[in-house]
Structure formats: C-alpha cells, structure tokens
Design a protein that fits this description.
There is one protein chain. The chain is α/β, with parallel strands linked by helices. The chain folds into 2 domains: 2-90; 167-389, Rossmann fold (3-Layer(aba) Sandwich). The protein contains 10 helices and 6 strands, in the order αααβαββαβαβααβαα. It has helices at 2-26, 49-154, 165-174, 194-201, 250-256, 275-286, 298-308, 317-345, 358-365, 376-389; strands at 182-187, 224-226, 235-239, 264-269, 291-295, 353-355. α5 crosses α6. The protein starts with a helix and ends in a 5-residue tail after the last helix. It binds guanosine-5'-triphosphate and magnesium ion. Guanosine-5'-triphosphate (GTP) is lined by residues 190-196, 206, 214-215, 218-220, 242, 296-297, 299-300, 357-358.
C-alpha cells in the first residue's frame, strides 16, 4: 500500500511538474482563475487529484501544443507570404532593371543605327561629289582636247594616233610585209591615177595581164600588192584605195589604212591637193616615213592649158610645139607654186612635187627614153635612191 501510494504520489508529482512546466512554457501568464478546475478524486475508485492534475496537464499541454502549432503555422505562413512578397518584389525590381537595361540598349542601338545611316549618307554624298568633280574634270579635259584638236585642225595639224603593237602586226600581216623588201605605197583620191602609176612603175601597160585594174569603173577598194618583175626580190608596190572612196574622216585615213607600215609613200594628186593628202604627209613626217608628192596626168593637163591658150588641134606641128612648150612651162610653174602654197597653208614642210604622166613614166621604166619627160626620170631615180639608201639595203 505504502509502495503504491508512494508510486502514485511520485507519478502525480511528475505529472504535476510536467503540467506546470507545460503551462509555464506555453501559457505562463494564464490567470489562476482560468486554469481548469481540478476535480477531486477520492481514493479507491474516486477521481483522485493526481489523475485530475494529469488530465488537466495533458489537456493544457495539448492546447498549448495546438496553440503553438497554430502560432508556428501562422508564423510560417506569414514568413512564406513575406518571402513570396519579397520574391515578387525582387522579381519586379529585376524585371524593371532588365527593362531599363533593354531600353537603354535599344536607345543606344537606335542611336548607333542613326549614326551609321548618317555616316553612310555622308559617304554616299562625298562619293557623289567626288564623281561629279571627276566627271566635270573629264568634261573639262575633253573640252580642252576638243578645242585643241579644232585649233590644230584649223591650222592643218591632224591629231596623232599611235597604233598599238597588235595593230602594227596586223597591218604588216595584211600587206605581207617582209623585212628585206622595200614597200612603196601610192595613195591619193579616187581616179587620180594610182593604179596606172603602179603599172607604169612595174613596166606594164594598163591592159597587160596582171596589171592593176584601172579606169573610172575600176575603183580600188582594198590595198593591193604588185611586184615589179625586174625587182621582185627588192620592191613591192601597193595600190591604196582613194580617201574619197571610203567614209573615213581625212585625219583617220592614215591609221585606218595602216599606212604607218610602209617604207615610202607617194601622195598622188590630179587636180587638187586634198585635206587627206595633207593628213598623209603630216602623219608620214610623224612616223618618219619618206614621202613623194606626185602630180599625175601632166600630158592631159598640159593639153588642157594649150587649149585654154587657144591651141587648135588642126594647127601645124611647129605651132603645136610652141604651144606645148609655153603650156608646159606654165603648167609646171603653176603646179609647183600651188603645191608650195598648199603646204605652207597646211603648216607642212616644203617639198618638191614630181610632175609626171603615166605613159612617159612607163617608157622611162622600160628604158625607152620618151621625148616629153618632165620629172619621171628624177622621180624614179629619187625613189630607188631612197630605197637603196634606207636601212634595208644599207
Ligand atoms: N592622160 C592620162 N590619163 C591617166 C593618167 N594616169 C591615169 N590616167 C587615167 O585616169 C583614169 C583613172 O586612172 P586609175 O589608174 O584607174 O586611177 P586610180 O587612182 O587607180 O583610181 P581608183 O582606183 O578609182 O582610185 C584612167 O582612165 C587612166 O587611164 C595619166 O598620166 N595621163
Ligand atoms: Mg585604182
């Protein structure tokens, strides 16, 4: 009994201590009046004070635990809500900062784009201004050149056009140029007697087989090559189309015909000394090509002069001879003076004019000394001297 009582007492004491402790811990300020009233339990089957105290302590502890749990949960909820709020706030701040950064970057990008556009526009404007200046300078130079060309052409000076190496090679191939052959070209307006002159040089009559075609309807349209059989290894003769035959400006005639490849050029004229003749002479001087000015058809021209002087074909031989000599002298001096004047007017070097007729020349070439020689012998002599004295045969 004593032992049980003792145990009950210790248990009750322990429970009381725990209850007090729980009460102290959980609800220290609870007024005494609010403490649950402890039912009095009688010993031996009645509710004892220890059970009541234990129940009360348990209940108080449970209530305290429940309140503590509630408080904790509430505190946790508040903390969670605060954390969420903090996170929301933080996210909003971050988003705001990011938006500000993005706005700044966008602004900077726009600024850069504007600056880039402005730079490109400035460059384009500078390029356009430079091109305009270049175009204006080119136009000014072209104008100066045009004026210079007009001025020179007014003075009879033709523009210098230097052929390229390829053009020279082509022109040489076209005329079958050979380094050990001397190449004579005869140039002049259509009908001046070029083909007839070449036939005469080659010792042929116009109707001989192999002779250059002649006559009003036999206009030469391409450069043709002829050989003097007596000198076939040394000389080649070229019949060049008359400038009036082709639609080529006078000053381009020389280059377009490739006349720069020839070793010597005869400029043949019949009635008038033309601009093309002057251009050929000027270009030959520039290319250091020897030239001979030749007036053709002297027989016909002298006869015309005789007729102008009143000569009648029925006159007797003596009278005819007298007319001939006077007309011949008149024609020769008039021709020489007129060529001299033409050369001077065209600012060209003064040079001799050879007055010939093709029949007389053909006779001289064949060593049949005809009577009415004017410059035929000298022309042949000077031509061949020029050839033999040239670097080809020196
Ligand atoms: N009387 C005379 N007639 C000539 C003389 N030379 C040429 N002729 C004539 O003039 C005409 C023209 O002569 P061509 O030799 O064909 O003249 P061309 O310069 O070759 O003529 P194209 O080939 O058309 O440029 C022909 O009827 C010739 O007979 C000459 O010295 N005296
Ligand atoms: Mg001809």
């Amino acid at each position: 009994m004593v032992l049980r009582a003792r145990t009950d007492f210790l248990e009750a004491e322990e429970r009381q201590r725990l209850a007090e402790e729980a009460e102290r811990n959980v609800k220290p300020n609870l007024p005494l009046s609010e403490l649950p009233r402890l039912p009095v339990r009688k010993r031996n089957g009645c509710v004892g004070w220890r059970e009541e105290a234990e129940r009360a302590g348990r209940k108080a502890r449970e209530e305290a635990e429940a309140r503590a749990r509630e408080e904790r949960e509430r505190a946790e909820r508040i903390a969670r809500e605060m954390e969420e709020e903090r996170q929301r706030f933080q996210a909003a701040a971050v988003a705001e900062r990011l938006a500000a950064i993005a706005a700044r970057e966008e602004k900077a990008r726009c600024q850069r784009a504007i600056e880039e556009e402005a730079k490109l526009a400035r460059l384009a404007q500078e390029e356009a201004e430079w091109q305009a200046r270049e175009a204006s300078e080119a136009a000014r130079k072209a104008q100066v050149e045009k004026e210079e060309m007009e001025r020179r052409m007014e003075k009879g000076i033709q523009p210098v056009v230097i052929p390229t190496v390829e053009e020279v090679q082509l022109a040489k191939a076209k005329v079958q140029y050979k380094d050990d052959v001397f190449h004579f070209a005869v140039a002049g307006i259509a009908g001046s007697g070029k083909s007839s002159l070449i036939n005469a040089f080659c010792g042929m009559n116009n109707r001989d087989p192999g002779a250059a075609p002649t006559g009003v309807s036999e206009t030469t349209l391409e450069i043709s090559r002829y050989i003097n059989l007596a000198h076939s290894e040394q000389f080649a003769w070229y019949d060049v189309p008359g400038s009036g035959t082709l639609t080529i400006p006078d000053w381009q005639y020389f280059n377009s015909q490739g006349l720069y490849v020839f070793d010597c050029i005869l400029v043949l004229f019949d009635n008038r000394f033309t601009m093309t003749d002057q251009a050929i002479l000027a270009n030959c001087d520039r290319f250091k090509i020897p030239t001979f000015i030749v007036r053709s058809k002297s027989d016909q021209h002298i006869l015309n002069v005789m007729k102008d002087m009143g000569y009648d074909a029925d006159e007797d031989t003596d009278c005819r001879e007298q007319f001939y000599h006077i007309a011949r002298e008149h024609y020769i001096s008039e021709t020489r003076q007129s060529v001299k004047n033409n050369l001077a007017e065209a600012n060209l070097r003064d040079q001799r004019v050879y007055i010939i007729s093709n029949k007389t020349l053909a006779g001289v070439a064949k060593d049949n000394w005809p009577k009415k020689i004017i410059d035929e012998v000298e022309l042949l002599t000077d031509l061949y001297s020029t050839a033999y004295l040239s670097s080809k045969f020196a």
